[in-house]
Amino acid sequence: MHTNSVIELSQNALKNNIAFLRKTFGSKVQLSSVVKGNAYGHGIYSFTSMAYAAGVNHFSVFDVEEAKTIHAHLNQKVTIMVMGLVTDEDMEWVITNEVEFFVFEKKRLLKALKTAKLFQKKAKIHIELETGMNRTGFDKKELGSLIAILKKEKEYFEFKGICTHYAGAESIANYYRIDKQIKKFEEMHQIIVAHDLKPEIKHSACSAASIMFPQTRMDLVRIGIMQYGLWPSPEVFVNYLNTKKSKVDPLQRVITWKSKIMNIKTVQAGEFIGYGNSFLAERKMTIAVIPIGYSHGYSRSLSNQGRVLIKGHRCMVVGSINMNMMTVDVTDISNAKIEDEVILIGRQDNISISVASFSDLSNQLNYELLTRISKTIPRKITD
Ligand SMILES: *Cc1c(COP(=O)(O)O)cnc(C)c1O
User: Fold this and answer.
1) Atom of ligand 1 nearest to the CA of 37
2) Which of 18, 34, 225 maximizes ligand 1 atoms within 8 Å of its Cβ, making it the mutation to test the pocket?
3) Which of 60, 229, 251, 352 gives 34 a disulfide partner, CB atoms 3.0 to 4.6 angstroms apart?
4) Which residues are within 8 A (CB) of 32 and not within 5 positions of it... i.e. 6 or more apart?
5) How many angstroms separate the alpha carbon of residue 217 from the centre of ligand 1?
6) 2 C-alpha vs ligand 1 centroid, how far in Å?
7) Ligand 1 mean position, distance from CA 126 (Å)
């Protein structure tokens, strides 16, 4: 475990976000908390405990490793749904532990049914339909053979749901593509139902779709980024605000990432700072060294770009982000000293560094920066 930084997770912020989401979607729509990618970098174990305490009882993951982490501490109390990969080796565990999973191609379906027969336990499947993302899901032309298999093997599975995923609902530029997907999903749903196969639920929405296209909410929404207190894109946030009188952001960021100054240095005008010559001190400067680098998930692309908070001031990263360290300019802050608190993401006094601001700077999405944050940094749950 690293002790040079800590990630704090706010229980109250999460409670607020879950309450907002429930209010937005209403009581008829089930909320599934998406916790793939180590709960978007927050730490899957801590985050799922917090979410459970906030009333969440349905989790979506990408793979079986993540499902096992949740199963190990919330077993029996929650529904776990694997949206991505279930390998042949994992099929037995998934079915015998009643974990639900997406089935998006025929080979997987046959393996699931075979395993179900072998262990006398029904596979809890969600049939994923290809509606235009062109990634995973059964094509319309495969429906005939899919339906034939499902009808023949009825007693070996529970038809938990049918689902699809949209190709970029966070951007208005994709409006027509998403709209086509929504229609295609309904059309394929009708074909399945017409053959007397009744999925328990229908689901399709991620955060962006749930706000931009309310008709995609259906029976369950799979919400990732918004429960962490971030919007999928500025467009989605603006779109949401346009429907409201209040212009206050209803979401609260759950994560805070903090460290401490490990060294202070004075640099003379005309000297370069750090490796190479990417930053030249044009005046006499005071530099604080922070024990965080790209090995901890602070992207190298934030070299000479990122900002951190020290003593309530925004400070520029100067020079390149190293593997374990970075340097920031504290010239204009009076008496910054070793051990002073440094906020990488979060709030200090009245200013805040949001993940969004650091991802705008590095041209990456919130999603990517968050999931890069190292698993080995300790997570601490706070109020
Ligand atoms: C990641 C993911 C989601 C959640 O996306 P957000 O934009 O974070 O809400 C929903 N569905 C699927 C299939 C996903 O992979």
Assistant:
1) 1
2) 34
3) 60
4) 58, 59, 60, 79, 81, 203, 220, 221, 222, 223
5) 13
6) 29
7) 15
The band of 56, judged by pLDDT with boundaries at 50, 70 and 90, is very high
Selected residue with higher pLDDT from 75 and 139: 139
The CATH class of 255-353 is mainly beta
Q: Rounded CA gap, 123 and 94, in Å? A: 8
Displacement of CA 232 from its chain's centroid (Å): 10
Report pLDDT digits (tens) over 170-213. Answer: 898 999 999 999 999 999 999 999 999 999 999 999 999 999 99
The domains of the chain are located at: 11-241, 255-353
**Ligand 1 centroid to residue 205 C-alpha, Å:** 8
Ligand 1 is surrounded, with C-beta below 6 A, by 34, 36, 83, 165, 206-208, 222-225, 232
How many angstroms separate the CA atoms of 187 and 182, rounded? 9
Percent residues over pLDDT 90 in the chain: 90
> pLDDT of 57-73, one tens digit each?
999 999 999 999 999 99
Identify residue 71 by its one-letter amino acid code.
H
